[in-house]
Design goal:
By secondary structure, the protein is α/β, with parallel strands linked by helices. The protein is built from 10 helices and 9 strands. The chain starts with 17 loop residues before the first strand and ends with a helix. Bound molecules: adenosine-5'-diphosphate and magnesium ion (MG). Adenosine-5'-diphosphate binds next to helix 1, strand 7, strand 9 and helix 8.
Length: 261
Amino acid sequence: YKIATLKRANDQHAINNVKNIIAISSGKGGVGKSSTAVNLALALQKQGAKVGILDADIYGPSIPTMLGTEKQQPLTPDNKHMTPIMAHGLASNSIGYLVDPDSAMVWRGPMASKALLQILQDTLWPELDYLVIDMPPGTGDIQLTLAQSIPVTAAIIVSTPQDIALIDAKKGMTMFNKVNIPTLGIIENMSYHICENCGHHEAIFGEGGAQRLAEQYQTKLLGQIPLHKILRQDLDTGQPTVISHPDSEFTQLYCQIAGRI
Ligand code: ADP
Ligand code: MG
């Protein structure tokens, strides 16, 4: 893409009822973007905000599993619009609700971006202070189209402290910079591992990387989330930690991050 083409589209439409759109993005897959999106959405809700979540990861939708809503399907009152699925107080929609979860999506970029825009625009979102978008990993066609056509308020980048994840996180920030979407900051996920027996903290993927990256890009390190079995188990069972372990240190960390948004 030439820089000149990387402007925000002129035909951006505000999404009905939605005040702020926060894109949760990562250069790399598997760094915990969806996990962070779900727990952060719930932490924002805990502060009294009305929150929705859109699963834009068209090739690997995981929000239905993480919210425990896999078997559900949005109703369409008029055969055009969709009523979002409510779970733990969050309004949600996902390509995962609409297609057979076991079938692979083989759409090319333009079709995938179109489908996503449609899901976003045709969902009857209730009044929301924040719509959190779990973006697909990477900085390809779909991500760029989304960033250009959706009136995103700000982006948050999720990375692990590992160099290869950080390199991809940089690309994500560069993409948002180019389309004039401000980056609120970086969340370092799997920042350290807490030993279940002795409580010792061990940096598995390296240390200080996200902090350095934040400084380099003049943005904030919004928080550091450890690698812990509870976080994984809670998401696998559709009971995210912020809901199922409200008094845990993990919930505290997500709430601190929500307070910085
Ligand atoms: P992405 O959306 O970036 O591809 P996911 O959020 O799906 O990544 O996370 C990948 C896997 O790692 C999931 O199975 C999730 O439960 C697990 N996971 C993510 N973050 C953590 C964490 N901080 N501690 C433990 N497991 C995690
Ligand atoms: Mg994901």
